[in-house]
Amino acid sequence: MKRSITTFLLLFAICVSNAQMRKWTLQECVEYAVENNLTIEQFELDLENAIIDKSDALGNLLPNLNGSTSISSNTGFSINPTNNLPTNQTALNVNMGLSSNVTLFDGLRNLHQINRAKINAIANQYRLDDLKDDIRLSVANAYLQVLSSKEQLKTFKAQYAVTEQDLNRTKELVESGVLPRGDLLEIEATAATQQQQIVNGEGMVLISRVNLAQLLQITDYENFDIAEEEFLIPPSDILDNSAKVIFDKALSFRNDIKFSESNVDLAEEDLKIAKGAYYPTLSAFFQYGTRYSDVTQIPGANGPYTPNFTDQLWIFDGISYGAQLNVPIFNGWSTKNNVKRSQISLERAKLQLEQTKLDLETNIQQAYVDVSTFEKAYEAAEKTLEARRLAYEYAKERYDVGLMNAFDFSQAQARVDNAQADVIRTKYDYIFRLKILEFYFGLPISLN
Asked: Coiled-coil stretches, from where to where (predicted)?
């Protein structure tokens, strides 16, 4: 029994450990964010409401059907419902009926309501998809920030390891009298500065991880981490296309454009619905009714008698049907004003569509310039790092033979450190801008 419990606890510990050690890939982060974002869930509820509205619009074309029944008892003076004569009897009366109404013509407003409901459902789907696009970009950016922070931390630690070697070597040279003690103090100050960089780097890794976890709405920050991968600059021929070509393609599939276009269609349907109030409304009705009263008296072969409940329902039933035409003549300019409001809303929707297109074109132009700019910045940072490293190697040779003091040597190393940090920063800035431009071109977000 003890062995079984021990085995169970061991397996449980392994499972918990594996759960805690899970490393999230970019694709997993994006999918999880899209599936669990609260705003997305709210938009999905709006989409469900839009689908229900479409069902309502379709139902308005169908005739309604209502049943009614009433039971009453009168004591004292009343009117007998079967012969319309006054009576002082206590009477039990039952009335039942069915009624149905259908709109035959209302200026085509019902049809426009159906079209509007269909367009509204489509518009809500575009709005939901546009939000998902924004979340994908936000998650990708946050993910790259974690990668950048981790890579910088690795660089800080590697730099400190080199400084430790220099520190040990300098101690030996100082103890042997080759170098003054001031050089040792300078190297120790450099080591202390790099230790502080490591502490700050660890803090940046933690902050970037927390920011990404919050986007995913994960609260277990301590056990949340991304996969340990080093991403190189992904190959891309996106710049083979001009910004105009990318913009023209984006117009054909971008959800924000489709959403704005749907809003124009909605406004057009609203205008048609408002204009429909100028037309007459033609409706048809059908009614069936019957009744029962315990004071009913009808002639018979042996004198008046009271028919039973079932017989009275057949005797006193009746049908009425017909049509009704309502012609609007004057309603205080409300229809006219509603049409004007709908026209204004239509113009506003058209302006918003043009603004959305303009914003998209501006964003693509900026993204296009950013890709070129950050690519050049990354290439320049790499060249600078290579030059700084060569200068550092030369300075190290001079320092080792006593031809350079510790301060100048530490400055050479600091310049290498700064150059490495610039390479990491510009690398991930370039990757993210590249992915943004590819995203506008319709390519999925991926770091492969």
From this structure: 339-366
